């Protein structure tokens, strides 16, 4: 009787195990290393789950710099790993766990490029973060700000180079808001790209577009704001065109038109005074003058020349007149002659008026005698 009951219970169990959707029949899967059971799966195609024993042993993770930069060092578990040509590196730890992962940019060397840590994809903004191994993400991204060594070349409207010593300062601004002001034309490191997070996920680099906002020469801004734009590229030299103009001054006598004066005295927008000699025709040409407000005066003339303003926004051709002592003497002589003429004319008119009065008086006397 006991044997019958045991056989009945065993048969019933086998029947229930054979029903669809009931319980799981374990099947052992051998891992790639031949270490024994690694995965369990069910016969009804449910997703397999990893045996905890399979996570033991060395763990690896792939790191990727954004943008891809070779030669960047990562440190984890006392070991250092360097990115390859594609900006990626595979790091390894001896066993699962939580580790400090650090990106090291101080050891990066490139004569035309520098990098600085920006952020991790996981909203971490410190160069060291904790990472759990094994990782959930197939790739761990780290964002880097890239700097390029950029030089400047200043040229005039005709393309001729301008001495950078004339530039007292110049300012640039990126469309992303980076602003810099420099006081010489030496090459300098400026940000070339910054890292942002895409809405769809992941990091992406954004190249910075710079505009020239001002270039100060002789106290005046010689560029139109935001008209010239540049990207920072490796070993780039920006050619910046400056608004320079020419001024031609011809000095003549105010009355007689002959050349007068010895020098042109020119006051620059910053208050500096320069002098330029006049030629035999009383003319001087001054080139490469910064756009702006000037004042000029003719000196060395035997006479009077006022300080006159001039605005240089294009090439100027100016005829200026100087009141010489000869002009003053001529005007004086003309005035004296006019005065003498008026006096003589007045005396002549008075004499005629007296004679007319005498004639009229004699006529009245004769008329009275006849009556």
Report what the structure shows:
It is a single chain. The chain has 371 residues and is α+β, with helices and mostly antiparallel strands. The chain folds into 3 domains: 58-144, Immunoglobulins (Immunoglobulin-like), CATH 2.60.40; 146-241, Immunoglobulin-like (Sandwich), CATH 2.60.40; 244-362, Sandwich (Immunoglobulin-like). It is 17% helix and 46% strand. The chain is built from 2 helices and 27 strands. The protein is rod-shaped, with a radius of gyration of 48 Å.
Task: List the keywords.
371 residues, alpha+beta, Immunoglobulin-like, 3 domains, seven-stranded mixed β-sheet, five-stranded antiparallel β-sheet, 2 helices
Count of helical regions: 2
CATH first level of the largest domain: Mainly Beta
Which stretches are poorly predicted, pLDDT < 50 over at least 5 residues? Answer: 12-54
Percent of residues in beta strands:
over 45%
Class from secondary-structure proportions: alpha+beta
Instruction: Name the CATH architecture of the largest domain.
Output: Sandwich
What letter string, H or E per element, gives the SSE order? HEEEEEEEEEEEEEEEEEEEEEEEEEEEH
> CATH H level of the largest domain: which superfamily?
Carboxypeptidase-like, regulatory domain
């Amino acid at each position: 009787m006991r044997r019958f009951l045991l056989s009945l219970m065993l048969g019933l169990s086998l029947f229930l195990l054979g029903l669809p959707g009931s319980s799981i029949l374990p099947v052992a899967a051998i891992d790639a290393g031949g270490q024994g059971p690694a995965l369990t799966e069910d016969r009804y195609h449910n997703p397999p789950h990893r045996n905890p024993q399979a996570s033991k042993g060395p763990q690896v993770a792939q790191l990727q710099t954004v943008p891809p930069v070779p030669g960047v060092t990562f440190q984890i578990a006392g070991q250092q790993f360097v990115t390859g040509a594609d900006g990626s590196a595979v790091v390894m730890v001896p066993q699962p766990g939580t580790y400090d992962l650090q990106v090291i940019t101080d050891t990066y060397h490139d004569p035309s490029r520098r990098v600085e840590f920006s952020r991790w994809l996981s909203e971490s903004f410190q160069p060291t973060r904790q990472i759990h191994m094994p990782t959930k993400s197939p790739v761990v991204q780290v964002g880097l700000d890239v700097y390029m060594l950029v030089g400047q070349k200043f040229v005039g409207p005709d393309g001729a180079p301008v001495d950078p010593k004339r530039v007292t300062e110049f300012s640039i601004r990126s469309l992303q808001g980076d602003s810099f002001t420099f006081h010489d034309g030496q090459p300098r490191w400026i940000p070339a790209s910054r890292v942002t997070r895409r809405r769809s996920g992941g990091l992406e680099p954004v190249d910075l577009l710079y505009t020239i906002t001002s270039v100060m020469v002789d106290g005046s801004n010689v560029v139109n704001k935001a008209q010239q734009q540049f990207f920072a590229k490796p070993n780039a030299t920006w050619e910046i065109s400056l608004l320079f103009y020419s001024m031609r001054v011809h000095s003549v006598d105010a009355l007689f038109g002959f050349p007068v004066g010895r020098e042109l005295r020119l006051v620059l927008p910053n208050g500096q005074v320069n002098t330029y000699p006049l030629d035999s025709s009383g003319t001087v040409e001054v080139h490469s003058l910064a756009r702006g407000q000037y004042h000029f005066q003719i000196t060395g003339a035997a006479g009077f020349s006022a300080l006159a303003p001039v605005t240089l926004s294009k090439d100027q051709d100016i005829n200026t007149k100087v009141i010489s002592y000869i002009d003053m003497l001529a005007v004086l002589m003309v005035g004296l002659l006019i005065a003498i003429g008026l006096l003589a004319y007045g005396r002549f008119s008075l004499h005629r008026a007296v004679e007319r009065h005498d004639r009229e008086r004699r006529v009245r006397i004769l008329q009275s005698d006849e009556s």
